[in-house]
């Protein structure tokens, strides 16, 4: 029973939150006259002593005392006697744990938000440096159109800014205090839930005691925001894996973010990127686990809910690692501009520019221009050249109205510079957008 029942092995991570909650509860109990000010002082001092012991690593955790709440309360009573036994008045472990988990998730959101912003800053800095560094833009992982390394970096800044927004939304919704819901129905003691809510930085108390102890949707939302962010980091990691492959040779990572092989001396493996990609599964698993715990639970509290914590802790810790590794890799990687430019021009990547020229200059309907360009690509392919390698005469066998001017749109530089619509790939756009992000993130 003890082995399956005890949660102290993992929920001790919430000791700060548990003590914070108890301090607020005790202060309120004294304020409304349920306990004496002497008892409140004894509790406060006792809890400070416990915090110091935990911090110092000499707190005697006891599995027999089940969880973090009982461990702290039992030691408090040992230390301060009677007063410690009065702390639990008008409270239950059900609202206590709901409170602790909310506080823990709220702290995690604040920490992860700062880390997401750090990655965004790193990406933005690379975007400013490489606003005009052309690289191939892919669809289907096939050459599509030239873009710039800076534009590519800023695509991830946008994704991460939405992840940050999702965490902020989750935080807004979770920021209500369940403390005082007691076991499930509230309490007959004249407690002041508004006072404890305020003391703990909540916008106010929750409105329904049953909901307060039964609900963990705040945690599921947090885990979804984490899973989405992990998915974004995983896509970037996957690109780093591809880009560092020597057949691509788009970027290099230093030894700081790669490892060697124990047998193959030439190896430089992008392990950090692979681990970011691989760890995404844990976060997704935590979300699935949370929803699964909740889906069949009748109101209100069930011990199943003790299973909420490990997934939350693991997801948050995994995100901390992955965000730190990603920030480091983004700062570390060196784009190979010459190789990127070469690849940007390969695969007839300016074919769309050619078709657009036919539309603009010859007033050709786009579908016809698409067809003519297809024939020119076939011609170039047969000749073994790129589009700019065709002579004017060769082009004119396909479309006689083509003039010398067409060569002006076939370079990758002209291609990226032309895409100056809002949100487009043009270096001037990228520079402006990166500067905007830099200021917003300052
Ligand atoms: N360790 C428990 C949990 O994490 C605390 C709440 C226990 N409540 C109860 N009625 N047994 O959910």
TrEMBL record:
Reaction catalyzed: 2-(N(omega)-L-arginino)succinate = fumarate + L-arginine
Matching entries from InterPro entries are given as:
Arg_succ_lyase_C (IPR029419), Argininosuccinate_lyase (IPR009049), Fumarase/histidase_N (IPR024083), Fumarate_lyase_CS (IPR020557), Fumarate_lyase_fam (IPR000362), Fumarate_lyase_N (IPR022761), L-Aspartase-like (IPR008948)
Q: The Fumarate lyase N-terminal domain covers which part of the protein?
A: 1-285
Places the protein is found? Cytoplasm
GO BP term, example? L-arginine biosynthetic process via ornithine
Q: What is one GO cellular-component annotation here?
A: cytosol
The record's GO molecular-function terms, alphabetically, read: argininosuccinate lyase activity
| Keywords (A to Z) from UniProt | Amino-acid biosynthesis, Arginine biosynthesis, Cytoplasm, Lyase
Q: Domain named Argininosuccinate lyase C-terminal: which ranges?
A: 348-417
Q: In which pathway does it act?
A: Amino-acid biosynthesis; L-arginine biosynthesis; L-arginine from L-ornithine and carbamoyl phosphate: step 3/3
Superkingdom of origin: Bacteria
Which Pfam family is one of this chain's hits? Answer: ASL_C2
Entry EC no(s): 4.3.2.1
Q: Which NCBIfam families match?
A: argH
Alphabetized PANTHER family for the sequence: ARGININOSUCCINATE LYASE (PTHR43814)
Q: Which HAMAP family match?
A: Arg_succ_lyase
> So what family is this one in?
Belongs to the lyase 1 family. Argininosuccinate lyase subfamily.
> In its UniProt entry, what is this protein called?
Argininosuccinate lyase
Q: Which organism is it from?
A: Belnapia rosea
């Amino acid at each position: 029973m003890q082995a399956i029942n005890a949660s102290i092995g993992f929920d001790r991570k919430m000791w700060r939150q548990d003590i914070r909650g108890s301090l607020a509860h005790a202060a309120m109990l004294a304020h409304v006259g349920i306990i004496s000010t002497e008892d409140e002082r004894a509790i406060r001092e006792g809890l400070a002593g416990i915090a110091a012991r935990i911090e110092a690593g000499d707190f005697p955790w006891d599995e027999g005392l089940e969880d973090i709440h009982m461990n702290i309360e039992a030691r408090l009573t040992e230390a301060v006697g009677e007063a410690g036994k009065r702390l639990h008045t008008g409270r239950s472990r059900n609202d206590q744990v709901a409170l602790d988990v909310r506080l823990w998730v709220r702290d995690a959101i604040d920490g992860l938000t700062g880390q997401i912003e750090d990655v965004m800053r790193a990406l933005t800095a690379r975007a400013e440096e490489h606003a005009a560094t052309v690289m191939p833009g892919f669809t289907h992982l096939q050459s599509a159109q030239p873009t710039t390394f800076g534009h590519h970096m800023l695509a991830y800044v946008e994704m991460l800014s939405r992840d940050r927004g999702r965490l902020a939304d989750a935080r807004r919704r979770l920021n209500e205090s369940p403390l005082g819901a007691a076991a499930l129905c509230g309490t007959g003691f004249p407690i002041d839930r508004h006072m404890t809510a305020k003391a703990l930085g909540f916008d106010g108390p929750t409105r329904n005691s049953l909901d307060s102890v039964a609900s963990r949707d705040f945690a599921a939302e947090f885990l979804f925001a984490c899973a989405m962010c992990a998915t974004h980091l995983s896509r970037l990691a996957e690109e780093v894996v591809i880009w560092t492959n020597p057949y691509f040779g788009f970027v290099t990572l230093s030894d700081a973010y790669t490892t060697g092989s124990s047998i193959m001396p030439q190896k430089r493996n992008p392990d950090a990127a692979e681990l970011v990609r691989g760890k995404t599964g844990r976060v997704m698993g935590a979300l699935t686990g949370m929803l699964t715990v909740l889906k069949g639970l009748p109101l209100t509290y069930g011990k199943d809910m003790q299973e909420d914590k490990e997934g939350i802790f693991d997801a948050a810790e995994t995100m901390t690692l992955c965000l730190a590794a990603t920030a480091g890799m983004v700062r570390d990687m060196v784009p190979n501009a010459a190789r990127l430019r070469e690849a940007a021009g390969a695969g007839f990547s300016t074919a769309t520019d050619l078709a657009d020229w036919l539309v603009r200059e010859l007033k050709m309907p786009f579908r016809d221009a698409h067809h003519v360009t297809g024939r020119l690509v076939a011609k170039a392919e047969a000749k073994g050249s790129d589009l700019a390698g065709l002579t004017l005469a060769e082009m004119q066998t396909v479309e006689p109205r083509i003039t010398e001017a067409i060569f002006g749109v076939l370079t990758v530089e002209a291609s990226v510079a032309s895409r100056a619509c809002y949100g487009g790939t043009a270096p001037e756009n990228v520079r402006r957008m990166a500067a905007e992000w830099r200021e917003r993130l300052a």
